[in-house]
# Entry
Amino acid sequence: MKLSRLNRDLHRWGSIFALLPMMIIIVSGVVLQLKKEVAYIQPPTRPGAGSQLSIGFDRILEVAKTVPEAAVTSWDDVDRLDVRPSKGMVKVRGKNRWEIQIDTHTGEVLQVAVRRSDLIESIHDGSYFHDRFKLWLFLPAGLILASLVITGVYLFFLPYLARRRRLKKR
# Structure
């Protein structure tokens, strides 16, 4: 079997295998590019009054408990804290994807909203489906995509190389 024929077959079947995972990665990646511009994906950051952390972690938890949507009753319900001293606020992300933005000077709730970007990121990297999905489907699809680029470049230049060989023979 000629290399060019094998190359075409690998290119054709590799693209079929990689199609679904690559489309998931591409579409979710495009959506993630818009996360700072679209409030539905990620809530915009609301600046606080000061630029220093004047309240403690106990006060942050106390304020977070007052927001019923976030369903925070203890630190176990908190996924992470994102402290932004220069903006005078802290983001409390609950495990249920709700985000509470709290002023670090006054302790006032600045904003409460659903944060969808984390969900989209987990779809993007494949962990949403299953932790092993990343390694058993998305990683091979990425490697196949890399080989598709290489074989595609080869297939693109193949006619030019053949024409060059024919001209040299003459």
